[in-house]
């Protein structure tokens, strides 16, 4: 075997061990949500994808991404062991009963937006509902205990509408 061939063999073996994984984890991704997770040129990318890849690589794991139709489905799959990890998951007591949480890797605030109506600008969520406004939310998302209590109130059941896709929220 020539010196060049031996060198290439050593490089190939070292490269393979440097990029090998101890285990591959199934990572559930629920929706296209730029800049966090989206498909570009046929490849899943985004901030959450970069964070997951970096953390898993450091820990010696690889990621196999599994696209879910909604966050709600992602949590069901996690609960039943069909996926190992869900990025961008908000903490709730119910979710804590079947999963573990990392420290937050990004902080965000949920905001409402609507077509401009001057009479509605100073209202909180309950005030908007009391003014017969309909609020669309993501399936499987957690918006805090105040929102949960309003959602459980029968008088608002037709105004707090859960949709599973970005397309439904936009049209």
From TrEMBL:
PROSITE patterns: PROKAR_LIPOPROTEIN. Residues 25-111 form the Solute-binding protein family 3/N-terminal domain. Residues 1-20 form the signal peptide. It holds the Pfam family SBP_bac_3. It comes from the Bacteria. Keywords: Signal. Belongs to the bacterial solute-binding protein 3 family. This is Solute-binding protein family 3/N-terminal domain-containing protein. It comes from Pseudoalteromonas gelatinilytica. The lineage of its organism: Bacteria, Pseudomonadati, Pseudomonadota, Gammaproteobacteria, Alteromonadales.
């Amino acid at each position: 075997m020539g010196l060049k061939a031996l060198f290439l063999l050593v490089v190939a073996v070292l490269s393979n061990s440097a990029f090998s994984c101890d285990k591959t984890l199934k990572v559930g991704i629920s929706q296209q949500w730029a800049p966090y997770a989206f498909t570009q040129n046929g490849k899943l990318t985004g901030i959450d994808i970069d964070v997951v890849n970096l953390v898993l690589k450091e820990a010696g794991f690889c990621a196999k991404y599994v696209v879910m139709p909604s966050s709600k489905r992602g949590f069901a799959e996690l609960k039943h062991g069909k996926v190992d990890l869900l990025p961008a998951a908000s903490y709730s007591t119910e979710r804590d009963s079947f999963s573990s949480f990392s420290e937050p890797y990004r902080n965000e605030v949920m905001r409402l937006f609507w077509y401009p109506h001057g009479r509605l600008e100073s209202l909180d969520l309950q005030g908007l509902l009391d003014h017969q406004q309909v609020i669309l939310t993501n399936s499987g998302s957690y918006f805090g205990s105040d929102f949960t209590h309003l959602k459980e109130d029968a008088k608002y059941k037709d105004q707090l509408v859960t949709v599973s896709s970005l397309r439904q929220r936009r049209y």
